[in-house]
Each structure stands twice: as C-alpha cells, then as structure tokens.
Amino acid sequence: MLEAVKVTLDPTPRQERLLESHAGAARFAYNAGLAHVKAMLERQEKLEWSYYALRRWWNANKDALAVSMETGKPWWPENSKESYNSGLESLADALKNFSKSRKGQRKGRRMGFPRFKSKDRAVPGFAYTTGSFGLIDCDPYALRLPKIGRVHCMENVSKRVDGAKVLRMSVSKRGGRWQASLTVERADLPVPSPPKGGSVGIDLGVKELATLSDGTIIHNPHALKSNLGRLKKAQRNLSRKRKGSNRRREARTRVARLHARVADLRRDLLDKTTTMLARAYADISIEDLNVAGMVRNHRLARSVEDAAFAEFRRQLEYKTARTGARLHVIDRWHPSSKTCSNCGTVKAKLSLSERVYHCEECGLVIDRDLNAAINIQVAGSAPETLNARGGSGKRTDASRRATRHPVKREPSDGVSRVSLGAGLGNEAMQMTSL
User: Fold this and answer.
1) Known catalytic residue at 287
2) Other residues' Cβ atoms within 10 Å of the Cβ of residue 130
3) Which of 287, 289, 374 is nearest to 328 (CA)?
4) β-strand pairing of 326-330 with 283-287
5) What strands lie across the sheet with 165-174, from one edge to the other?
6) Is 250 known to be catalytic?
7) Identified catalytic residue from 82, 283, 287, 317
8) Is the pLDDT of residue 378 over 60?
9) pTM, full prediction
10) What is the pLDDT of residues 160-214, one digit of tens each?
11) Is 203 marked active-site?
12) Which residue spans within 175-250 are E strands per DSSP?
C-alpha cells in the first residue's frame, strides 16, 4: 500500500534560495509547455500533450527557452532536471483532466482549460521521482535533495518512514515553511480483527462537529471563525502595502501563516477524532452528505467548509481499513433527522432552527443531533437492504410508524426501502488488503 509521510524542512538561507529556484524552474517549464500547447491549437496541429510528449519537446528546446537575457547562456543546468519534469507532469495532468471532463469521463465539477501560473499566486513546489533523493543513512533528521544537498528536518523522518521504499518526494512551501511529502510503499498488512467496541452512528454538524449515538459529543472549535478577526486585520494590513515591496512580502507571509494555523487546528481535531473512532468501534455509520449542495447556501457555506465533512469521511475510510473496523455510509436521502428514534414516526417538515426533536406520536423529547445519530446507527447496522422475507428495511405503514411488513409477501417495490447504495466506505480498501 502507498502512504504519505509529510515532514517540515529547516533549510539554511542558501538552501532556501535554491528551493525557490527549483520551484521557479517547475513553474517556468509549466508555463512554457502551456504556451507550446496553445500554439499547437492555434496552428490546428495534431495535439501531443502527454507527459512524455511534453518531455521530448522540452529536451529538444530547453537550450533556446531557458536562456539568460544578460549573458545569453542557458540557465537550466542550475536546477535539477526533476524540477522541470514535475512542472511538465502537472501540466499533463491538468490537460488530461480537462479532456476527460469535456468528454464526461471525469467525476466532479467541470474542469476548465489550464491557465498560466503566476509567481505571486501559485504555490511554490516541485517533486523528485528519480535520482538519489530521500533518506540519508545514519542521519535520521535529514533528507537528500539533488542539486540542493542535505536539508535538515524538524523531526525524525527515518523513524516515520520505518524502512519503507520511498517512491516520490514532493517539496512545497505553505504558510512560509518548506515541507517535504514522501510517498512510501509498504507491504500490505493482514486485515486485523475489528475493535471490541460495538456499533455507533455519527451525525456531523456545524454547531457540534459530531454527535455519536451513545451520547458523546465532539465539539467544533470553529478554527476559521475563531481566527477570523486576526485574519481580517492581517489582510487589511496587506492591502495597504505597495506591490513589490519587502513589507508587502512580509505581510503576505503573516497572512499565509495565519491560514496555515487555521488548517493545522482543523486537521489536528479531525486526526484525533477519526483515530479514536476507528480504534474504539467495530461498526461506524455515517451519512453520505451532499457537501457541494450545502455550500450553495451562502449563510452556511463558511461554517460547512470550516467543519471539513469530506475530510472527516476520507480519514475514516482509510483508518477503519487499518484497524479492521467496518464503515457504513448511509444514503443521503435517508430521513435521519425527521425520524423518531423511539417509534419510527417520520415528520413531514423539520426546520433547521428546531434543535430539539419533539415526537407527536410517542411524546419523545430528544436532542435533534442525538436522534439523528441513533437513526444512522440503526440504518447502518442493518445487515442488508432487504430482510430475509423480502420486506423493505425501512418499515412504514399508513400511520408513518416503523412496523414490519407481513412475514409472507413478495419483495417490495423499493419505494420505502432504506437505500444503502453508497455501500461500505472502506469495502474496496479491505478487499485489496486480503
């Protein structure tokens, strides 16, 4: 299996200048390749924009492209060839995504044609895929970067890699700090036995990050909201600085570090929460939330994105595969909030402002999120969509109560069936490990 190991670098001033040079070389190759592709489109020539076609074009024309205007000599040998290759690889991926998106072969939002990268807006970065890069023997707190040398790390990177094979090393600058992300290949581990904990349903929210069916509440620190005042002040200060000045560069660094702090606070909570859940429970049930639709509500968009629901699910998927826990993803149309967890009555309407669920049939009064978490646990605990006699899993009669269908009957038409079409979130990952 493949795993990413990210560490923070501690370069010297000279090494930092070399890192900036390599990142600039990757950006230069990307822009030069994009200009070449646009020229082919204008001349209506046969398009050759694969990664290997772009590399052949670059090697044939780099002496004429990467030339110093003062001396007239090529400057590309100053940087590692891998920096140029990584820029061309990014361009080839962008073009491939654009082509697949136009043909309807790519999921997600529609991708536009690639645009040129600006030095001010693009994230500095490059990657190594070949050569003598990576770990250094008998030096656990350092990495070897060709053309740059030994770069000190903030932590023991050898311990984190733990003897795995390093396939790729991506170097980027975020929040004013240089980071290295190592893609390592480890041997597939046998599927462990599930944790001894029982099943749990999780209802994600904005006010509270997660409410568990056993009553546990994971509080939402609102990482962005709590730092929004400082961000506004720093961005106002940045807007007053003259473009191109050193003080503007310093102000941009302060803004970037605040954004990095917000991301670190959010990631820290998600890491700790998902790790606890994957180690404590054998069956975990969550909803298949339509996050893209939720952010269209401009009153909730900032809070929804600050909660990072998609990242929460992504981490649960791979962590449950490691611990042997089973992840069940409930269909997004399942009325978990409108259904009474005691008698099964489904309300016709339930406004977002109603934080306490009142059941008109049985008189149950319960927290809205806790009620939804219990319903998610029940739906996820169902061994199959249909029961043994062909009755549907979500049993509702004319009075909207959850009662079982007759024992002897034909399979239902599926109108009132609990749709678990999303399946197990970690199903494919566990199959790979077998």
Assistant:
1) yes
2) 11
3) 287
4) parallel
5) 125-128, 165-174, 177-185, 2-10, 149-153, 139-145, 134-136
6) no
7) 287
8) yes
9) 0.78
10) 998 899 999 999 999 889 999 999 998 887 777 888 888 999 999 988 999 999 8
11) yes
12) 177-185, 199-204, 208-212, 217-219
